[in-house]
Amino acid sequence: MKKILLLNGPNLNLLGTREPELYGHTTLADVEAAFQHSAARLGYAAECLQSNWEGALIDKLHEYGQLQRAGLALGCVFNPGAYTHTSVALHDAVKGVPQLPVIECHISNVHAREPFRHHSYLSPAAAGIVIGFGVEGYQIALEALVRKFRA
């Protein structure tokens, strides 16, 4: 069974308690369980990783690039959190595994927030972007990834 990666960046481990008026009350564990369930329903195994460390996110992208080349992975849904607006390294990591489709996903509408959140270093390297649908955005991104890249 091919794998799909759900990757979450810094502070997303605080979902459900951090700014619930903005991010809601759903926890990261809830998001991951729903993602894994939906992936299984679609015929895929989902692996979930959240890290506050940029290097761990990069290493996991590189690993999945190799898995995709070997025919063992379909792609990645990635909420880079605040690294969206700061990390050229994550941009380069996604560009470095061009065969791996990465869907950038954000819970809130970053374009309706502070101006520094309006720019994404990841977007130019991403296969697609889902923004502002709350935690449902993860499901939207998963289904879009499968529909567009299932071969």
UniProtKB/TrEMBL annotation:
Keyword check for Lyase: yes
InterPro entries per UniProt: DHquinase_II, DHquinase_II_CS, DHquinase_II_sf
Top-rank taxon, per record: Bacteria
EC class name: lyase
UniProt: substrate binding residues: N79, H85, D92, I107, S108, R117
Reaction equations catalysed: 3-dehydroquinate = 3-dehydroshikimate + H2O
Entry similarity comment: Belongs to the type-II 3-dehydroquinase family.
Main function: Catalyzes a trans-dehydration via an enolate intermediate.
Record protein name field: 3-dehydroquinate dehydratase
Organism: Serpentinimonas raichei
